[in-house]
Amino acid sequence: MPAVTTAFRDDYSLDEDSYTANVDRLLDAGATGVVAAGCTGEFWALSFAERLRLTELTVASCKGRGTSIVGTGAVTESEVIEQIDAARGAGADGALVLPPYFAHLTKSEIIAHFEAVSDKATLPVVLYNIPGNAGNAITPDIADILADLDNVVAIKESSGDWGNFHRTLAAVKDRIRVFCGPSSTLGVAASLAGADGHIDCFPNVWTDCMQIWHATAAGRIDDAWALQRTGIAMTDLYTANGRTLYPATKAVMNANRLPGAGALRPPLRPLSGTSLEELLSGMEQLVAPKQRVARGTQKIFKE
């Protein structure tokens, strides 16, 4: 399930047509659902009304085609619950909930937060561990406790640390589903270890990223490892020389006229100059010969 970007026009308003076109493209390319308004979707820059509108668009695109999971990240329990209620009203299938951010919390405070959310959640809850962004981690021992909460059904483990992922998988696999976040770097190993799926941002620019899951599930291990090597190189490229993941993702989408990108909302800024040129050149070398987009006919990069 790709973590989809949020499309903005140059005036920073939502570009609904572009967003929907991207979701449709990814579903056509093999996605079994999408995750909207997460970190890739710049949730921190969206108003409550905009998140609700994204949910409505996502649900409409996924209806009969895949699962719709919506990010409901917020600092306070009341905000998270309010967003979950709104997402349920719009028809979403699940809510992605990360720990409160900025405030440094104790283990007991993180657990108490999720207990409060689970008690009032009107949608199934997917835990979201991304300590590099949230600042608070759902460690394997915390995940073990949270897996027993009534409304918790899954976790997206996006620490990027294999040991942490594997310990989490071992701790909760018998009770909830476990999704690998950075499947571009850990996807094959995660699948072979028993992960239930992948949630990654790279399908927005490289639809073959989803084939890491499909190839491994089908037993085409050599193909899967070849894709994994590309994913690792891509991750390195997107985060080298001052670049960060989300601006780099939208830069590649925009350069190749893919829907779903457009502007970045501040404080993020678009790439330019040597940084952008190096990124696009690197992508040409990595995926140009085989990547397809938009129903498998149009090439992202000219050969």
Short description:
This protein has helices spanning 16-28, 48-62, 77-90, 107-120, 131-134, 140-146, 162-172, 183-193, 211-217, 221-238, 245-255, 273-287, 294-297; strands spanning 33-36, 67-71, 94-97, 125-129, 152-157, 177-180, 197-198, 292-293, 298-299. The protein is of the alpha/beta class and 303 residues long.
Number of domains: 1
Note the beta-strand portion. 5-15%
If helices are DSSP runs of H or I spanning 4 or more residues, what is the number of helices?
13
| Largest β sheet strand count, sense and barrel closure | 7 strands, parallel
Class from helix and strand fractions: alpha/beta
- Give average pLDDT, whole number: 94
CATH class identity: Alpha Beta
Strand order of the largest sheet: 1-2-3-4-5-6-7
Topology, please?
Elements lengths: L15 H13 L4 E4 L11 H15 L4 E5 L5 H14 L3 E4 L9 H14 L4 E5 L1 H4 L5 H7 L5 E6 L4 H11 L4 E4 L2 H11 L3 E2 L12 H7 L3 H18 L6 H11 L17 H15 L4 E2 H4 E2 L4
Parallel strand pairs: 1-2, 2-3, 3-4, 4-5, 5-6, 6-7
Antiparallel strand pairs: 8-9
Helix pairs in contact: 1-2, 2-3, 3-4, 6-7, 8-9, 8-10, 9-10, 10-12, 11-12
Give a verbal description of the structure.
The two termini are 28 Å apart. Helices cover 48% and strands 11% of the residues. It has helices at 16-28, 48-62, 77-90, 107-120, 131-134, 140-146, 162-172, 183-193, 211-217, 221-238, 245-255, 273-287, 294-297, and strands spanning 33-36, 67-71, 94-97, 125-129, 152-157, 177-180, 197-198, 292-293, 298-299. The protein has 13 helices and nine strands. It has 303 residues and is an alpha/beta fold. β2 (67-71), α3 (77-90) and β3 (94-97) form a beta-alpha-beta unit. α1 (16-28) packs parallel to α2 (48-62) and α6 runs parallel beside α7 (162-172).
